[in-house]
Amino acid sequence: xxxxxxxxxxxxxxxxxxxxxxxxxxxxxxxxxxxxxxxxxxxxxxxxxxxxxxxxxxxxxxxxxxxxxxxxxxxxxxxxxxxxxxxxxxxxxxxxxxxxxxxxxxxxxxxxxxxxxxxxxxxxxxxxxxxxxxxxxxxxxxxxxxxxxxxxxxxxxxxxxxxxxxxxxxxxxxxxxxxxxxxxxxxxxxxxxxxxxxxxxxxxxxxxxxxxxxxxxxxxxxxxxxxxxxxxxxxxxxxxxxxxxxxxxxxxxx
Length: 254
Fold this sequence. Notes:
Elements lengths: L2 H35 L10 E3 L18 E8 L16 E9 L5 E8 L8 H7 L3 H6 L4 H12 L4 E4 L2 H14 L6 H4 L1 E4 H8 L14 H10 L5 E3 L3 H16 L2
Parallel strand pairs: 1-7, 2-5, 5-6
Antiparallel strand pairs: 2-3, 3-4
Helix pairs in contact: 8-9
């Protein structure tokens, strides 16, 4: 290879290396500047989990295991704001899901039901639950028959678990009475509210430092990924919340 050509090639490679080094230094400076100007409380990039496919939600109980926990969730006709009175809202359940778990949080059974209703859903409720008026009307699961199955499993359990337990027990109790069923097992069974437990962990706070109630997705994200800003994909919201709640329970059990 002629010497002049080699010299030119060396010069070109040197220039290319210098350009790459300069780009790298500028890029690093840019990243450092972004980190320095980013607010300390800025959310971290979110993880994502699918409750219908992730192995985090697969925990079958061994053969012969006995029921200990019943984890459940409801969805209602209307969106009922926590900060406003419940009068004027239709709090009848339109979906009910639950899991029966052993003492270690392993799953013995899982059920999820859309309840038959004739009244139309509001667009806001459909946007939240993913259920339509047609879904409710076409469902073959009457509220009473689903509630009887739920109560049968509750009688096998020693502890009732939910996220925002007081709310879910309240809406079920009222509809039990409408259906001619005894609601007392909902209040006589030992209970655990995962929302209250999540607040006691103190990972979600307001500007003044007061501990706040986390959403079930935030609690699950904190317990499993140390990041409350978790994206969760799902087919059924009621079943999603039950699976997130049961998985969170397994995480806190000794």
